[in-house]
Specification:
The complex is a heterodimer of chains A (about 725) and B (about 290). Chain A is mostly beta strands and about 725 residues long. Chain A has four domains: about 1-110, Sandwich (Immunoglobulin-like); about 125-425, Metallo-dependent phosphatases (Purple Acid Phosphatase, chain A, domain 2), CATH 3.60.21; about 435-525, Immunoglobulins (Immunoglobulin-like, Sandwich), CATH 2.60.40; about 530-710, Sandwich (Jelly Rolls). Helices cover about 10% and strands about 40% of the residues of chain A. In chain A, strand 12, helix 7 and strand 13 (about 310) form a beta-alpha-beta unit. In chain A, helix 6 (about 250-260) packs parallel to helix 7. Chain A is globular. Chain B has four domains: about 1-25 and about 40-95, Serine Threonine Protein Phosphatase 5, Tetratricopeptide repeat; about 105-160, no CATH class; about 160-225; about 245-290. Chain B starts with about 20 loop residues before the first helix and ends in a 6-residue tail after the last helix. Chain B is mostly helical and about 290 residues long. In chain B, helix 4 runs antiparallel to helix 5 (about 75-90), helix 9 packs antiparallel against helix 10 (about 165-175) and helix 11 packs antiparallel against helix 12 (about 195-210). Classes of the chains: A mainly beta (about 725), B mainly alpha (about 290). Chains A and B meet through helix 6 and helix 7 of A and helix 1, helix 2, helix 8, helix 10 and helix 12 of B.
């Protein structure tokens, strides 16, 4: 394989000054892990030899040397003690020979502060195809003499399995002129992961790359090349591993990310990883768990810390979002009304604006998926969060200049197919309004049926406020168009609510206030309590579903529970209610679900009559040792009761509240009186044909887990 | 609402819309997908390609490959079925046992996952990932003693482990009640990977739980030395001092944290986590919020 690679490179080698064919370059040189004071230069030779880099600030006068006497074929030399924002010309070779040198072999170190910065972004490039080279050539023609300060590859850098031979043929020889003068930063894609392993950081992807593990390029030390961060000028970049590292919201990568963002001092925050949080290209972000996890677990962290731009690949097309915030659900839950921070294209006078330089939480983010740098693969390309979706090969160009970021999508023919601008601190666009709720106060309580007057103040420094919308959660309550801004929400039932106000200015810019939580208690001195797994430390819920088409399979760890009548599925749910004092009288019970798969069929809610195990229940078994009297928990003498306590039907995804009837209230009362009889609910109807799914107590997003709310006196 | 007949039985996708309508799959395959692209395109295309190869010439390696693709596609039953077929064709294909263990673990079937990995690791006692995976299975089964053994083996075999490996081993040791060993294990990680906030954070929590506040403070100071922004970790330092009953020092540290926060530029100070931190510090210090 090495001989083949050498033969392929022979024509190129003849063009490189000072190259000896006896010992020759088979890869590189390429730049890695650059900072204000250091850069790593790597190259590979056909035979083992010592490593020498000669360098200096004047081309042709390379008076400084960095070397390693150990003979090897894989060479890696780190130049240190460099000055920031300085060009160092270099050559690579050994103690006897120079393998490569020239005026375009140089390192330009990172600046310490803001400077005009050009970044080239490639997604899924490594196909070795004519598409890949066309995308490359289009960019080279576009950028011309303007230096590329750094470039990013968003994963799947070498198809189909990221073997060393594939990198040798589909990555390094495709961009030699870029590799030798601009530092490449990469993230792991699933195809790279075909031969690489993040837990052991082995395989060609990791062998070939030198990425910061100790925070040496800026940022907090991660201890791994799988995820890392670095600074360039006034930009902080974060790379995450969406493929092969735990994407848990409480895992090490998430914890490191929080620490890193808490340590950030730069004006711009750009984050990249392989699996996009939003896409309807060749991959569907509603269903692929990598993509769901990045959206649900990392989206809130990133937006809390004011991320400006998120880049990902994986889908082989170009998708670019609107200027959005707080969309963590499936695509059908996307709302222009509540999740678009500033409407429009982001072009010209409609540039996306943030009111100040530096990260501002929940002030808008653009999510871009330029995953077509090596091929196009289509898809429905209809994600509602996207402003533009194109099945067009190309690459992305970012130009950051002070407080302005210009982004373009350049197709493989050299045409600009999309662009947007983001500005900060009045760098050239609309300044967003300010808004806050002045009453009720956070944590205020009311008695049902409540009348809650929400007052807000709003102002716009460069224009006027045209309206203030008042929300409870994602539900619009009402609108006021004149100051003082106010809305009275009447006949509010007992429960917990989250109020926000959203101001819109005359340029279409919007801003949402901090949420104000309020509680409405039941009438007559009632107390309302809610139980949700993971909220306020509650850990008393168990749930699962049982399936007629998988009779011995347990689904206790599933993140959704299913109901169906064709084939037959039932949902089992139980909440520990022992914290409700004995002797209290229950007056109302509701169950709240997050519906993920809709059905207009009506499912009945019954009480179970025997104990069951979340980790062992199946269609056949209630526990590991006891079977249901009738498979499917259907026996009405010993498995479940016959009285319907409530019904569940859900024609739309999202929140669904079920109010139990008087029999349901009585049943819950009996569980409070005698906790040992609490076997929970079963939701089933084996006569229907549709299927209904809801988030379970293991759902990644805590707020989507089922809730039981009990009013008692 | 479940459409009629899905092209692939996708009932095991974790999350929301589970069924992929046939029309969308066909559109994805037809719309702009060249034969080259389908050779290394999305999962559906890859599964289809391997299926065609299997039709022509079934082999254990191809069934294993397709099984792994089914796993990535989160169609776990189909993955397990393909592993079974691979094993029938070639009982000596050891990788099938690892793949089976991985899929069963992901499927939540821990004991069968353990059984599969037991077989695999007897055949491949030097496979670091195998030990890591089995360690996670064992943790799920609450067999923490065995889990720690496997974490140890994984770490011994891995030159560049992820911080997660040290953290998960520490969790297992804490579950066993051996907090001391948990801290020692995290120190091993710090020695091998550097002064990571993730590992120090976990170690600090255990030191505090053990009442070893001075040790926790030493660790906190080590983290602080590496950070440009100090406010969050100064707050943690204050909390440790309070837990140690050193209230006066805690208050001074909270003042230091608040001062660091106040020196941040307005935009860094005004993001929500910093606003919450500032409100908390002011509350701890009995100060009124800023105007």
């Amino acid at each position: 394989m090495k001989l083949k690679a050498l033969l392929l490179l022979l024509p190129l080698l003849g063009m490189v000054p000072g190259v000896s064919l006896a010992q020759s370059l088979t890869r590189g040189p390429y730049l890695q892990n650059g900072s204000t004071s250091a850069t790593t230069i790597r190259w590979r030779t056909s035979t083992a030899t010592d490593s020498v880099v000669r360098y200096g600030t004047t081309a042709g006068s390379l008076t400084l040397t960095a070397s390693n006497a150990t003979a090897k074929t894989e060479h890696e030399i780190r130049l240190t003690g460099l000055s920031a924002n300085t060009k160092y010309y270099y050559s690579v070779g050994n103690s006897a020979t120079t393998f490569a040198s020239g005026n375009d072999y140089f390192v330009l170190t990172a600046p310490t502060g803001a400077k005009p910065t050009r970044i080239w972004v490639l997604g899924d490039p490594g196909t070795g195809s004519s598409v890949q080279t066309a995308v490359r050539d289009a960019y080279y023609n576009y950028t011309g003499a303007t230096h590329t300060d750094l470039w990013l590859m968003l994963g799947d850098n070498a198809y189909s399995s990221g073997t060393d031979a594939e990198y040798t043929s589909k990555m390094y020889p495709i961009y030699p002129t870029m590799f030798r003068k601009s530092v490449l930063w990469t993230t792991l894609g699933n195809h790279d992961g075909g031969s690489a392993d993040s837990p052991t950081q082995t395989g060609p992807y990791y062998d070939n790359a030198t990425l910061p593990k100790q925070g040496e390029a800026g940022g907090v030390a991660s201890g791994t090349e799988a995820y890392y961060s670095f600074d360039y000028g006034n930009i902080h970049f974060v790379c995450l591993d969406s493929y092969d590292t735990s994407r848990s919201a409480t895992g090490a990568m998430a914890n490191w990310l929080t620490s890193d963002l808490q340590n950030n001092t730069k004006d711009w925050l750009v984050v990249f990883f392989h699996h996009p949080p939003y896409s309807k290209g060749s991959h569907n972000s509603d269903t692929e768990s990598n993509m769901v996890d990045m959206r649900v677990n990392f989206g809130p962290i990133l937006e809390n810390y004011g991320v400006d731009l998120v880049l990902a690949g994986h889908s082989h097309s170009y998708e670019r979002s609107k200027f959005i915030d707080s969309h963590y659900g499936v695509s059908s839950t996307f709302s222009d009304a509540t999740m678009v921070v500033q409407a429009g294209s982001g072009q010209g006078a409609g540039a996306y604006t943030k009111s100040a330089v530096g990260p501002i939480a929940h002030s808008g983010t653009v999510y871009a998926v330029p995953g077509a740098s090596g091929q196009i693969s289509g898809g429905t390309l209809n994600h509602p969060a996207m402003y533009v979706s194109l099945n067009v090969a190309g690459s992305m160009i970012l130009d950051v200049n002070g407080s302005t970021l210009d982004a373009k999508y350049l197709d493989s023919a050299g045409a600009i197919r999309d662009s947007f601008t983001m500005t900060k601190g009045g760098g050239g666009g609309n300044v967003l309004p300010t808004v806050s709720i002045t009453s009720p106060a956070s944590g205020a309580t009311f008695t049902a049926p409540a009348s809650i007057t929400i007052n807000a103040t709003a102002a716009d420094s460069d224009g006027t406020v045209t309206k203030v919308d008042f929300y409870q959660g994602a539900t619009l309550l009402g609108t006021d168009t004149t100051s003082p801004y106010s809305y009275t929400w009447g006949s509010v039932a007992a429960g917990s609510y989250s109020l926000t106000a959203k101001a819109t200015d005359n340029a279409g810019g919007t801003k949402t206030s901090t949420a104000v939580p309020v509680t409405v208690n039941g009438a007559g001195g009632s107390t309302v309590v809610s139980f949700q797994q993971g909220t306020n430390g509650y850990a008393g819920m168990v749930d699962t579903h049982i399936r007629a088409d998988a009779t011995t399979t347990n689904y206790g760890t599933s993140t959704t529970v299913w109901m169906d009548g064709s084939p037959d599925y039932s949902a089992l749910l139980k909440w520990d209610l022992t914290s409700i004092p004995a002797g209290k009288t229950v007056t109302a019970v509701t169950l709240t679900f997050n519906v993920t798969d809709v059905s207009t069929d009506v499912y009945e809610i019954y009480a179970l009559k025997r104990d069951w195990s979340e980790s062992a229940s199946t269609w056949v078994k209630a526990t590991s040792t006891v079977n249901w009297s009738t498979a499917g928990a259907s026996n009405t003498t010993s498995d479940r009761e016959t009285t319907v306590l409530g019904t569940l039907t859900a024609p739309a995804t999202g929140t669904k509240v079920v109010t139990l009837n008087s029999a349901g209230i009585a049943k819950v009362q009996s569980w409070i009186n005698t906790p040992s009889t609490n076997f929970g609910f079963i939701i089933q109807d084996y006569t229907v044909a549709g299927g209904l799914d809801v988030s379970s107590s293991e759902a990644t997003t805590v707020s989507q887990r089922p809730i039981i709310t009990i009013t008692y006196q | 609402m479940r459409p009629g007949i899905p092209l692939f039985p996708p009932r095991f996708l974790f999350g929301v819309v589970r069924v992929i309508p046939v029309s969308i799959l066909l559109a994805a395959i037809v719309c702009g997908v060249s034969s080259e692209a389908s050779a290394h395109g999305d999962l559906d295309g890859q599964i289809e390609m391997v299926s065609r190869q299997l039709d022509k010439a079934p082999s254990a390696a191809l069934y294993l490959k397709r099984g792994e693709l089914h796993h990535d596609h989160e169609d776990f039953e189909a993955a397990l079925a393909d592993y079974d077929r691979a094993a029938r064709l070639n009982p000596d294909l050891d990788a099938v046992w690892f793949a089976r263990g991985r899929t069963l673990f992901r499927f939540g079937r821990l004991q069968p996952a353990r059984d599969a990995l037991d077989v695999y690791l007897k055949k491949k006692p030097g496979h670091a990932d195998g030990f890591l995976l089995r360690a996670r299975v064992l943790s799920g089964l609450k067999d923490y003693v065995a889990a720690v053994r496997d974490f140890d083996r994984n770490l011994a075999l891995t030159q560049q482990p992820l911080p997660e490996c040290f953290l998960e081993r520490a969790e297992a040791l804490v579950a066993l009640g051996d907090k001391d060993s948990a801290v020692k294990g995290l120190d091993e990680g710090l020695g091998r990977l550097g002064n990571l906030t993730t590992l120090q954070s976990a170690a600090i929590a255990i030191e505090v739980a053990l009442g070893r506040h001075d040790a926790a403070l030493v660790r906190t100071d080590r983290v602080l030395a590496d950070l440009r922004r100090k406010e969050t970790w100064l707050t943690r330092r204050g909390e440790i001092l309070e837990a140690a009953g050193r209230r006066e020092e805690a208050l001074r540290t909270y003042e230091e944290a608040l001062s660091a926060l106040e020196q941040l530029s307005a935009h860094h100070r005004n993001i929500k986590p910093m606003q919450e931190l500032e409100a908390r510090l002011r509350q701890l210090l009995g100060k009124t919020p800023p105007v």
